[in-house]
Amino acid sequence: MDHHFLKHIFKTPEFTPEELNSIISKFKPILFSKNDFLLREGQTENHYWFIESGFVRSYVIDTNGNDITTHFYAQGDIVIDWPSFFLRSPTRENIQALSDCRCWQLDFDTFQELFHGLQSFREQGRTTLVSSYFALKNQTVSMIADQAKTRYIQLITHKPHIVQNVSLKHIATYLGITDTSLSRIRKEISNE
Amino acid sequence: MDHHFLKHIFKTPEFTPEELNSIISKFKPILFSKNDFLLREGQTENHYWFIESGFVRSYVIDTNGNDITTHFYAQGDIVIDWPSFFLRSPTRENIQALSDCRCWQLDFDTFQELFHGLQSFREQGRTTLVSSYFALKNQTVSMIADQAKTRYIQLITHKPHIVQNVSLKHIATYLGITDTSLSRIRKEISNE
DNA sequence: AAGAAATCTTGTCCTATGACAAGAAAACTA
DNA sequence: TAGTTTTCTTGTCATAGGACAAGATTTCTT
């Protein structure tokens, strides 16, 4: 287990070698094929995953029936619907593999064991959730304060691997615009 | 302590009477006057509060220097900047009393004690954070999917006390529009 | 490789909302 | 209570981005 992928996620010195082994042994490897659903609207999420390779997208269907991308996930990211997983409630989100993926899976009961049993695991879990909250807040403020072009440039800058691997229409809904507008923004940028 | 306000926040059966007393005794009452800052940009938040009475607003200053309301808080709400409090990092937010307020305050170290010491407190804390995340996610999706008018109607419907107690310009930035536009939306609605 | 399907670009026209400015109304303040 | 400041409304004009439709391009299928 020396070069286990999860050692990039759970690191010393926050975790002792014993804690590390105990945590990592609880995760199950799992493969998803392109277009597989990790979660579908109406289900209650009973697992979460860390991505070792591949790309994943989550989206909701809005009141007008439009598909709106809420998040992209790539290597090292945690794939989880926080509210569904922790409030044990049906989700509004769909989570789908955009490519073949190799993931590591943990179920709710095992999570609870680790969370209540290990202070270090608890602290890391809290930190991960709070970081997601922070990112979401920034996204919301950017949606209010910035123009679509600015948001797109920030996405290219901070997550180039997403822009390179995901279709234009999904990126567009993530940015809160239509595919048509994003296409025009791209053109504008390439003309600069 | 029989009619203590915090008993509306921490309730049986999730908490035993002993846990309740132990938790509640850790909170300190504190008063804020209108316009007082609970937190200012650049500071690291070392407390959080539950509001017994009054109204509070949080806002950020965006890249163009505009004041953007990120949240309104009223009776029973928890006032906290999650990332600053848990990541122990300087905040981007300003949190200011919109009226005189009576609050109950807990500091970070005491929080940690309770969090790691009491499973029930831990579960409730996690639930509160996840619920905030959920609300923020809905707000973000609404910002993409819905027109400003729809967002305003939802705010009136779900939080009438906010609309009745907060100035138009703050509500406008919260909805992601200008005060001018919100004034027109109001007129439109009253003409229906 | 040929056809079908999905994706991306481009054109035309339209609408929600912004920018700015000037009053009106309400809320402070001395 | 008069004066000042802040808040809210309304008008005019401008613009980012949407709606719809037609091609062009790329990607899947068989």
Q: How would you characterize this protein structure?
A:
Two copies of one chain form a homodimer. By secondary structure, the first copy, chain A, is α+β, with helices and mostly antiparallel strands. Chain A has two domains: 5-130, Jelly Rolls (Sandwich); 146-192. Chain A has helices at residues 17-24, 82-87, 108-117, 119-145, 148-158, 160-165, 168-175, 179-190, and strands spanning 28-32, 37-39, 47-53, 56-61, 67-73, 78-79, 93-97, 101-107. In chain A, the strands form two sheets. Chain A has a four-stranded antiparallel sheet. The first copy, chain A, has a four-stranded antiparallel sheet with strand order 2-7-4-5. In chain A, helix 7 crosses helix 8 (179-190). The first copy, chain A, starts with 16 loop residues before the first helix and ends with a helix. The interface between A and B is medium-sized, with 33 and 33 residues. The structure holds a DNA duplex (30 and 30 nucleotides).
Short descriptors:
homodimer; 192 residues; alpha+beta; Jelly Rolls; 2 domains; 4-stranded antiparallel β-sheet; 8 helices; globular; DNA-binding
